[in-house]
Amino acid sequence: MILVPDASSSRATRLSESSWAWLSPISEEADVTIQYYEFQYHPVIGESSVWQSLNDGGDVLLGLLLQLESQVKPLSGIIIVSNGLGGIPALTRISERYFDPAIRRLADKLTQVVLIGCPHPTIDDKSKWPLLDRILKHDRRLNARDLKATAEEAGIVARLCTNFQELGVRCPLITTYESQPTTIRSWMTIFRPERYTLVDREFAKTSVRNEEMVALNLDNRDVGSLTKPQASNDEFRQRVKFALAESNARVRFQIMQSESHPQLFRGDPFASTASEATHSIVPIQQQQNQSPTVVLSNPVLATAGTPTDRSTSIGSLTREAAFDYRRVARLPCHIFGRHPRNMNFFNRPALLEEIDSYMLPPPPNQHGSGVETLRSFALYGMGGIGKTQLALEYAYTRRSQFDAIFWITADTKANIAECFSNIALSLGIATESEVSDLTISFSILLRWLSNPTKVVTTPGGGEKVMDASWLIIFDNADDISLMSEFWPSTGIGSVLITTRDPAGKDFCLKRGIGVEPLSHDDALEFFRAQLDLDDGASQKVDTDFVARFGGLPLAITQVTSLIRRRQLTISEFSHTYDISIQQSGLADFQVSQHDGGYRQSIFTVWAFESLDKTTQALLNVMSLLDPFHIQEFILTQEIRQSFTSLYPKTKADYTVSRSELLKASLITRSLPTEHVEVHPLVQEVLQAQMGKQQLPEFFSIAVALINKSWSSETVKWGHETSHREHSALLLPHVLRLLAVFEKSLSDVELADEIIDLWIVNLKESGWYLYERGEHKSALPILTLCLDIARKRSRERPDLVADVLMSLAALGLHTSSPDEVLRNSKDHLDLRQQVYKSHTESGEIPLQTQYDYAMGVATMAMAHNFAGEFDKAIPYANKSLELYSSFPKYLNWKTVPYNAVAHTGWALWSLGRYDEAEEVFLKALNAHRERGIPGSYGFASLLYPLGNVQTSLGKHNEAAATHQEALLLFYAANGDNYKTAQARLKHAEHLARSGDHKEAQAQYEIAIETLSRNVYYKPEQSRALIKAARHMLSIGETAKAEDLFEQAQTVLNDANIRKNVKELDDEMMDSMVRMWSR
User: Fold this and answer.
1) How far is residue 115 from each of residues 82, 86, 207, measured CA to CA in Å?
2) What is the pLDDT of residue 249?
3) What is 838-889 written as a DSSP string?
4) Mean of the pLDDT values across residues 579-595?
5) How far is residue 733's CA from residue 755's CA, in Å, rounded to a whole number?
6) Which residue has better confidence, 626 or 715?
7) Cβ atoms of residues 826 and 804 within 8 Å
8) CB under 8 Å to 659, separation ≥6 — which residues?
9) Cα–Cα distance between 861 and 905 in angstroms, integer?
10) 563, HSE (Cβ side, Cα atoms, 13 Å)
């Protein structure tokens, strides 16, 4: 019987003095012979929390249980009685690693588990987590800092309990719970102590099969001792007595069976081929009235046994009493398989030191101070990231630290088993005949790993048995489930695994590190080193070219190898790579030992062909999107299945496929932002492998997903900002798709429906860039969009009109008045065509009416831009009339900002100031009366109204109006071209009021903002001139001259040959766009 107190129990030396005294009379009544062992936790708070120590201690307990199991008779039963959470970690480990033969032997000897007052929080129900704090306050009297630390790690306990609930145990389980509240006192509640039932029925229930719930009429304080004579507790004792009798009956039945059928029970029934040496550990003898104890003083050290002449600590027992001189290992023994040291390894000292902190054995003077536990560490990450090379370098450079190093290729079960046999033979601890049986060779090797000893010669010429140190490296352990079967759980040494599966870190008790790509500088240095280029080399390295490999060591190694083999210059290879990654030769790359001994190329290392077809489809779509921030709301959109039969159809399907990609480290995921990332080079290889046969299909899926992701609340042609954050997330993906389209799909015929969605995606992206003031970036996107849309003009004239409208608005900043007029006229013609087609059918959709009104207003805008203000006014009035008839705008419920702005600008430009003021004030008053918050559209009316008020001599009103416009423009767009124009007006008002310092500050911000846009050089020059004149007005002549000089340079760059000092206000206004005046 293994007695496991709670993490808060005090140390006990004898059974009768401990909290387990109630068991002694029960075992006597049940007539069961029991050998007792007691395990005790004593976490070191400060180094880790109670829960982390509890979790770590579970592995220590499991290791001790495995060693004790090997000392008891093959046909016997094991009962675990656990108070509180004490036994949960070890029980969970037993269920998780049942495929390990040693653990299977232990698990199958379990005949009963009893959990006394054990809380059971789970991941799904966080409402119970705070109860853990109350238990700690009651039991451990932790200070506030330690309580906070444990509260932050409550998830450790919840995950343990959740895993236990899912895995269960293979024997009957008795679970008890409290029915009495516990009094909890603290300095805050000293006069009014709190009372809580800490572990009630719901909090204790594990929901595993074979569970029997029993109530205890006790509080949490008395649950451990069970000494109070309540009737319900007597009932519990009777239930335990019955369980002991049942366990005894099972053992007796096995003994009877073994006597009747000895061939079935020779030695260990689960290791029938094991040699006798496997069971040579001397069992601990129990003295009368005294139980051996396993006492854990900290998460690492432990002792066991009674003070007999044969047993000291378990560690000493297995190293001395059980040492077999017939099996002396040949040391040192360093086995690296077919892996020579990579002399071109790029040093990564920080990672090597990180591994050291977990892997290095303790100094010789610390051996034997207690039971040592297995040290394990995981290197995980995508294929080609350098995990194997890193582990290999670690093994070669740390040979002096380990007596034995074993390299195991862990990609298949057969490879692992063969490696274990070869290791046993190389160590000299197994014969040729023994290694022919993999079970025997594994058992022999596992025994040595659990008791690693060596014989050394003493100064006096004698021999001495000492501890040996060993390191096992499981390389390419991508299937973590294989580790369960071959994991040296009882080993006393170090295990390093390399895997693509991030779960490898969980397998190593959260000890591990994700290997990241090389930094840009390191990648550049590695690239140069591979080509033996020093700083004075004639070949220059294109840093952008090297950056394309994303810091992936495998890619850099193979690219430089190809350059050397073909005797190419860097620029020659770069040129072919730009054309096609396949044309560069990487697709046919043949690996050699000179390339670091790695067996894969970048076209084979990621094993795409092993993925499920649905997962492959998901990854193919990801390869077409921006690699660094793929939002999962995009990938989980519901699209028409006519686009594909392979892409995940539901979110559940997506989750399954995502898990497969995460396991292979082909993607990474950020939980807080719910986005995934994929390496850019993975994308390039996938695109090359898809080719023109599959690329159109997955391009179509990506286009449909992006289209479905655009905000449905986007106001057509509006300048509202609510959708911009969402649009900013989608823009990078459209730009990536655009690059793929232009490179590979511009001459490929896509389905009409996909073409229409693609047009919308491009138009939305171009309009968003226009709103952001990035006119130079928007122009080529919208130009290409128009070319594609014109091919669909017969079927979808509305799409062509949408693009023309966008280009007309953009043209105010990038094009000539003639081009803006041409696009505006074509736009209106198409709107009229669509409007007429609906008129003939008898019903005109409201959106079509809006679009027609917008077409009319756009003509007013174009004539204003061309300076044809008389022609603009009729179109502006017509658009106002149309808008006023729509329900949305009826009685000025909503202000048609666009139409009002064009009307007011035209009237102001014609000198009809009173009429312009009336138009603007009517719209603005309607806006304010309805309590509508300020917006970009509202600011677009305030700015020209301020101009009108200035022309009317109402300077104070104009100053307030322009300042309000500035604030709204800035709120909507930050410092862009519109905001800059409002700043100039604000600066003029400040200068007029005598606040020269603030005026100059506003000028400087406006000048800097306008300098960012190549289309605004005239506006920038005008701003510099205004700032220079302001400097002259306050006597700053030198600064003024410098500003005039800058203004002249900018104006010359704009091909305007005029002397800046001779320009008056009217001449400057004629240089700039009307909206900038």
Assistant:
1) 5, 9, 13
2) 72
3) HHHHT---HHHHHHHHHHHHHHHHHHHHTT-HHHHHHHHHHHHHHHHTSTTT
4) 64
5) 17
6) 626
7) yes
8) none
9) 9
10) 23
Give the containing element (helix H, strand E) for 780: helix 775-790
Q: How far apart are CA 340 and CA 777, in angstroms?
A: 52
Find the helix or strand (DSSP H, E) in which 2 lies: strand 2-4
Contacts of 866 (CB under 8 A, 6+ apart): 817, 818, 820, 821
The model's pTM is 0.63
Starting at the edge strand found earlier in the chain, the sheet holding 293-296 runs: 211-216, 173-178, 110-116, 78-83, 2-4, 37-40, 293-296, 302-305
In the three-class reduction of DSSP (H, G, I as helix; E, B as strand; rest coil), residue 457 is classed as strand
Burial class (CB in 10 A: 0-12, 13-18, 19+), 39: buried
For the four alpha carbons of 117, 122, 126 and 129, in that order, the dihedral sign comes to positive
- Please tell me the least confidently modeled range out of 304-318, 690-704, 860-874: 304-318
The pLDDT confidence band at residue 289, using thresholds 50, 70 and 90, is very low
Instruction: Give the burial class of 643: count Cβ atoms within 10 A of its Cβ; 0-12 exposed, 13-18 middle, 19 or more buried.
Output: buried
pLDDT for residue 817 = 92
Q: What is the pLDDT of residues 186-220, one digit of tens each?
A: 544 444 567 778 888 888 888 887 788 888 888 77
Place of tokens 């999107």: 625
Token pair belonging to 589: 């790359």
> Token digits for 359?
């892997």
Q: pLDDT by residue (tens digit) across 1040-1071?
A: 999 999 999 999 988 888 898 888 888 888 88
Q: Strand, coil or helix: what is 66?
A: helix
Instruction: Choose among 472, 488, 473, 468: nearest CA to 329.
Output: 468
* Distance of alpha carbon 427 from alpha carbon 718, whole angstroms: 77
Range 45-64 average pLDDT = 66
Residues 3-34 as b or e (16 or more Cβ within 10 Å = b): bbbbbbbeebeebeebbbeebeebbeebebeb
The DSSP result for 653-689, as a single string, is HHHHHHHHHHHTTSEEEETTTTEEEE-HHHHHHHHHH
Please state, as a whole number, how many other Cβ atoms lie within 10 Å of the Cβ of residue 735: 15
User: To 10 degrees, what angle do helices 129-139 and 154-167 make?
Assistant: 110
Q: How confident is the model at residue 233 (pLDDT cuts 50, 70, 90)?
A: confident
What type of residue is 924? L
Would you place residue 318 in the very low, low, confident or very high pLDDT band (cuts 50, 70, 90)? very low
Beta-bridge mates of residue 472: 406, 495
Looking at this protein, which amino acid is placed at residue 1029?
Answer: R
pLDDT digits (tens, 9 = 90+) for 590-613: 555 444 455 677 778 888 888 999
pLDDT of residue 283: 30
Output b/e per residue, 59-82; b: 16+ Cβ within 10 A.
Answer: bbbbbbbbbbbbbeebbebbbbbb
pLDDT of residue 1048: 92
Helix, strand, coil percentages, rounded to 5, for the chain: 55, 10, 35
Q: Counting Cβ atoms within 10 Å, is residue 400 exposed (0-12), middle (13-18) or buried (19+)?
A: exposed
Cβ proximity of 392 and 341 under 8 Å: yes
Calculate the average pLDDT of the chain.
80
Secondary structure of residue 408 in the 3-state scheme: strand
**Which residues neighbour 256 within 8 Å (Cβ) at sequence distance 6 or greater?**
none
DSSP of 506-571: HHTTT-EEEPPPPPHHHHHHHHHHHTT--TT-SSPP-HHHHHTTTT-HHHHHHHHHHHHHTT--HH
Give the number of other Cβ atoms within 10 Å of residue 836's Cβ. 12
Residue 294, helix vs strand vs coil: strand
DSSP notation for 332-362: SEEE-TT----TTPPP-HHHHHHHHHHHSPP
CB of 726 closer than 8 Å to CB of 628: no
Position 388 pLDDT exceeds 70: yes
- The pLDDT of residue 239 is 85
1024 touches 1046 (CB < 8 A):
yes
Q: How confident is the model over 348-371, as a mean pLDDT?
A: 77
